[in-house]
Amino acid sequence: MSKMEKLEKIYKNLKEEKTLVLLKPDAVKRGLIGEIIKRFENSGLKIIGLQMVKPTRNLLDKHYPKTKEWVENLGNNFIKTCEEYKIKVDLKKDFNVNNVYELGLKVREWLLDYMCSGPIIKIAIKGPNAVEIVRKLVGTTLPFKSPPGTIRGDFSIDNPIIANLEKRAIQNLIHASGNKEEAKYELNLWFKKNELIDYN
Ligand code: ATP
Ligand code: MG
Hints:
Blueprint lengths: L2 H14 L1 E6 L1 H5 L3 H11 L2 E8 L3 H7 L4 H17 L6 H5 L4 H16 L4 E7 L3 H9 L12 H5 L4 H6 L8 E3 L3 H11 L10
Antiparallel strand pairs: 1-3, 1-4, 2-3
Bound molecules: adenosine-5'-triphosphate and magnesium ion.
Protein backbone atom coordinates (compact mmCIF):
# COMPACT_ATOMS: atom_id res chain seq x y z
CA MET A 1 0.00 0.00 0.00
CA SER A 2 1.38 3.44 -0.92
CA LYS A 3 1.73 6.21 1.65
CA MET A 4 -1.19 8.04 0.06
CA GLU A 5 -3.38 4.92 0.19
CA LYS A 6 -2.52 4.48 3.88
CA LEU A 7 -3.41 8.08 4.61
CA GLU A 8 -6.69 7.73 2.73
CA LYS A 9 -7.55 4.66 4.78
CA ILE A 10 -6.85 6.52 8.03
CA TYR A 11 -8.85 9.50 6.74
CA LYS A 12 -11.85 7.29 5.97
CA ASN A 13 -11.68 5.58 9.38
CA LEU A 14 -11.47 8.95 11.15
CA LYS A 15 -14.48 10.29 9.25
CA GLU A 16 -16.48 7.17 10.12
CA GLU A 17 -15.49 6.81 13.80
CA LYS A 18 -18.41 6.31 16.18
CA THR A 19 -18.83 5.73 19.90
CA LEU A 20 -21.56 4.92 22.41
CA VAL A 21 -22.45 6.99 25.45
CA LEU A 22 -24.98 6.00 28.10
CA LEU A 23 -26.22 8.59 30.56
CA LYS A 24 -26.66 6.40 33.62
CA PRO A 25 -29.75 6.56 35.90
CA ASP A 26 -28.10 9.06 38.29
CA ALA A 27 -27.55 11.52 35.40
CA VAL A 28 -31.23 11.31 34.39
CA LYS A 29 -32.54 11.56 37.97
CA ARG A 30 -30.35 14.56 38.75
CA GLY A 31 -31.59 16.45 35.70
CA LEU A 32 -28.17 16.56 34.05
CA ILE A 33 -29.18 15.28 30.60
CA GLY A 34 -29.02 18.67 28.87
CA GLU A 35 -25.88 19.78 30.66
CA ILE A 36 -24.01 16.64 29.62
CA ILE A 37 -25.27 16.47 26.03
CA LYS A 38 -24.27 20.10 25.58
CA ARG A 39 -20.64 19.21 26.28
CA PHE A 40 -20.58 16.60 23.52
CA GLU A 41 -22.24 19.02 21.10
CA ASN A 42 -19.83 21.81 22.05
CA SER A 43 -16.87 19.57 21.17
CA GLY A 44 -17.95 19.52 17.53
CA LEU A 45 -18.74 15.81 17.52
CA LYS A 46 -22.06 14.89 15.92
CA ILE A 47 -24.94 13.13 17.67
CA ILE A 48 -26.36 10.56 15.24
CA GLY A 49 -28.65 8.61 17.60
CA LEU A 50 -30.36 9.40 20.89
CA GLN A 51 -33.14 7.80 22.94
CA MET A 52 -34.35 7.30 26.51
CA VAL A 53 -34.67 3.61 27.40
CA LYS A 54 -35.28 1.46 30.45
CA PRO A 55 -32.76 -1.32 29.78
CA THR A 56 -33.37 -4.91 30.80
CA ARG A 57 -30.88 -6.65 33.02
CA ASN A 58 -30.31 -9.07 30.17
CA LEU A 59 -29.20 -6.27 27.82
CA LEU A 60 -26.86 -4.88 30.48
CA ASP A 61 -25.45 -8.33 31.07
CA LYS A 62 -24.51 -8.40 27.38
CA HIS A 63 -23.18 -4.84 27.55
CA TYR A 64 -20.64 -5.35 30.35
CA PRO A 65 -17.87 -7.85 29.52
CA LYS A 66 -17.59 -11.12 31.40
CA THR A 67 -13.98 -11.88 30.55
CA LYS A 68 -11.70 -12.85 33.43
CA GLU A 69 -9.49 -9.84 32.69
CA TRP A 70 -12.33 -7.30 32.80
CA VAL A 71 -13.97 -8.75 35.92
CA GLU A 72 -10.67 -9.00 37.79
CA ASN A 73 -9.92 -5.42 36.86
CA LEU A 74 -13.13 -4.30 38.61
CA GLY A 75 -12.05 -6.16 41.76
CA ASN A 76 -8.46 -4.95 41.58
CA ASN A 77 -9.43 -1.32 41.21
CA PHE A 78 -11.29 -1.52 44.49
CA ILE A 79 -8.34 -3.17 46.24
CA LYS A 80 -6.06 -0.42 44.89
CA THR A 81 -8.28 2.24 46.44
CA CYS A 82 -8.23 0.41 49.78
CA GLU A 83 -4.43 0.32 49.63
CA GLU A 84 -4.39 4.08 49.11
CA TYR A 85 -6.24 4.32 52.43
CA LYS A 86 -3.66 1.88 53.89
CA ILE A 87 -6.27 -0.84 54.34
CA LYS A 88 -5.39 -4.41 53.53
CA VAL A 89 -8.49 -6.20 52.26
CA ASP A 90 -9.23 -9.71 53.52
CA LEU A 91 -11.39 -10.97 50.66
CA LYS A 92 -12.91 -13.83 52.62
CA LYS A 93 -13.58 -11.98 55.86
CA ASP A 94 -14.54 -8.59 54.43
CA PHE A 95 -16.45 -9.57 51.30
CA ASN A 96 -17.06 -13.32 51.63
CA VAL A 97 -15.32 -14.06 48.32
CA ASN A 98 -12.37 -16.32 47.56
CA ASN A 99 -10.48 -14.24 45.02
CA VAL A 100 -10.34 -10.98 43.06
CA TYR A 101 -12.43 -12.46 40.24
CA GLU A 102 -15.30 -13.22 42.64
CA LEU A 103 -15.01 -9.71 44.10
CA GLY A 104 -15.18 -8.33 40.54
CA LEU A 105 -18.29 -10.42 39.86
CA LYS A 106 -19.93 -8.93 42.94
CA VAL A 107 -19.13 -5.40 41.76
CA ARG A 108 -20.45 -6.34 38.30
CA GLU A 109 -23.79 -7.41 39.86
CA TRP A 110 -24.03 -4.06 41.72
CA LEU A 111 -23.31 -2.39 38.41
CA LEU A 112 -26.18 -4.21 36.68
CA ASP A 113 -28.53 -3.33 39.59
CA TYR A 114 -27.55 0.34 39.29
CA MET A 115 -27.83 0.46 35.51
CA CYS A 116 -31.37 -0.97 35.46
CA SER A 117 -32.58 1.11 38.43
CA GLY A 118 -34.11 3.78 36.15
CA PRO A 119 -34.22 5.15 32.63
CA ILE A 120 -30.99 5.90 30.82
CA ILE A 121 -30.19 7.87 27.67
CA LYS A 122 -28.36 6.08 24.90
CA ILE A 123 -26.40 8.29 22.53
CA ALA A 124 -24.44 7.48 19.39
CA ILE A 125 -21.74 10.00 18.59
CA LYS A 126 -19.73 10.35 15.40
CA GLY A 127 -16.63 12.27 14.38
CA PRO A 128 -12.85 12.02 14.11
CA ASN A 129 -11.35 10.41 17.24
CA ALA A 130 -14.85 10.20 18.73
CA VAL A 131 -13.89 7.41 21.16
CA GLU A 132 -10.89 9.20 22.61
CA ILE A 133 -12.46 12.66 22.68
CA VAL A 134 -15.59 11.41 24.46
CA ARG A 135 -13.49 9.55 27.07
CA LYS A 136 -11.51 12.75 27.61
CA LEU A 137 -14.68 14.80 28.11
CA VAL A 138 -16.11 12.15 30.47
CA GLY A 139 -13.01 11.89 32.70
CA THR A 140 -11.79 9.00 34.82
CA THR A 141 -13.80 6.18 36.44
CA LEU A 142 -13.47 7.46 40.00
CA PRO A 143 -15.34 10.78 40.20
CA PHE A 144 -13.31 12.17 43.11
CA LYS A 145 -10.16 11.76 41.00
CA SER A 146 -11.63 13.02 37.74
CA PRO A 147 -10.21 16.49 36.94
CA PRO A 148 -12.35 19.63 36.90
CA GLY A 149 -13.66 20.36 33.43
CA THR A 150 -14.54 16.71 32.87
CA ILE A 151 -18.17 15.63 33.22
CA ARG A 152 -17.46 13.23 36.08
CA GLY A 153 -15.14 15.73 37.78
CA ASP A 154 -17.65 18.56 37.60
CA PHE A 155 -20.84 16.72 38.49
CA SER A 156 -20.01 13.72 40.67
CA ILE A 157 -18.19 13.03 43.91
CA ASP A 158 -18.67 9.30 44.46
CA ASN A 159 -15.90 7.21 45.97
CA PRO A 160 -15.44 3.42 45.75
CA ILE A 161 -15.03 3.01 49.53
CA ILE A 162 -18.40 4.63 50.16
CA ALA A 163 -20.00 2.79 47.23
CA ASN A 164 -18.66 -0.64 48.11
CA LEU A 165 -19.49 -0.44 51.82
CA GLU A 166 -23.01 0.53 50.75
CA LYS A 167 -22.93 -2.52 48.44
CA ARG A 168 -23.46 -0.58 45.25
CA ALA A 169 -21.64 0.52 42.10
CA ILE A 170 -19.87 3.84 41.81
CA GLN A 171 -22.31 6.42 40.54
CA ASN A 172 -20.34 8.23 37.88
CA LEU A 173 -23.10 9.50 35.56
CA ILE A 174 -21.84 8.13 32.25
CA HIS A 175 -20.67 5.14 30.32
CA ALA A 176 -18.52 5.69 27.24
CA SER A 177 -17.00 3.01 25.02
CA GLY A 178 -13.40 2.36 26.03
CA ASN A 179 -11.98 1.71 22.55
CA LYS A 180 -13.03 1.25 18.92
CA GLU A 181 -13.80 -2.47 19.24
CA GLU A 182 -15.95 -1.87 22.33
CA ALA A 183 -17.69 0.96 20.47
CA LYS A 184 -18.53 -1.24 17.50
CA TYR A 185 -19.90 -4.01 19.72
CA GLU A 186 -21.86 -1.64 21.96
CA LEU A 187 -23.40 0.43 19.14
CA ASN A 188 -24.55 -2.78 17.53
CA LEU A 189 -26.08 -3.91 20.83
CA TRP A 190 -27.93 -0.67 21.65
CA PHE A 191 -28.94 0.70 18.25
CA LYS A 192 -30.62 -0.77 15.19
CA LYS A 193 -28.97 0.32 11.92
CA ASN A 194 -31.97 2.54 10.99
CA GLU A 195 -31.83 4.34 14.35
CA LEU A 196 -28.48 5.92 13.43
CA ILE A 197 -29.13 8.98 11.30
CA ASP A 198 -26.19 10.72 9.67
CA TYR A 199 -26.36 14.25 8.26
CA ASN A 200 -24.10 17.08 7.07
P1 ATP B 1 -17.70 2.96 31.92
O1 ATP B 1 -17.31 1.63 31.32
O2 ATP B 1 -19.00 2.92 32.67
O3 ATP B 1 -17.55 4.11 30.96
P2 ATP B 1 -15.14 3.09 33.05
O4 ATP B 1 -14.65 2.51 31.74
O5 ATP B 1 -14.56 4.39 33.49
O6 ATP B 1 -16.67 3.30 33.05
P3 ATP B 1 -14.91 0.44 34.15
O7 ATP B 1 -13.63 0.01 34.78
O8 ATP B 1 -15.26 -0.05 32.79
O9 ATP B 1 -14.93 2.05 34.20
O10 ATP B 1 -16.07 0.09 35.16
C1 ATP B 1 -17.40 0.13 34.73
C2 ATP B 1 -18.26 0.79 35.78
O11 ATP B 1 -18.27 -0.01 36.96
C3 ATP B 1 -17.76 2.14 36.26
O12 ATP B 1 -18.17 3.19 35.42
C4 ATP B 1 -18.39 2.23 37.64
O13 ATP B 1 -19.74 2.66 37.57
C5 ATP B 1 -18.39 0.79 38.11
N1 ATP B 1 -17.25 0.46 38.97
C6 ATP B 1 -15.95 0.36 38.59
N2 ATP B 1 -15.17 0.02 39.63
C7 ATP B 1 -15.99 -0.13 40.69
C8 ATP B 1 -15.79 -0.46 42.07
N3 ATP B 1 -14.62 -0.77 42.59
N4 ATP B 1 -16.89 -0.47 42.86
C9 ATP B 1 -18.11 -0.18 42.37
N5 ATP B 1 -18.35 0.14 41.10
C10 ATP B 1 -17.32 0.17 40.26
MG1 MG C 1 -15.49 0.71 30.78
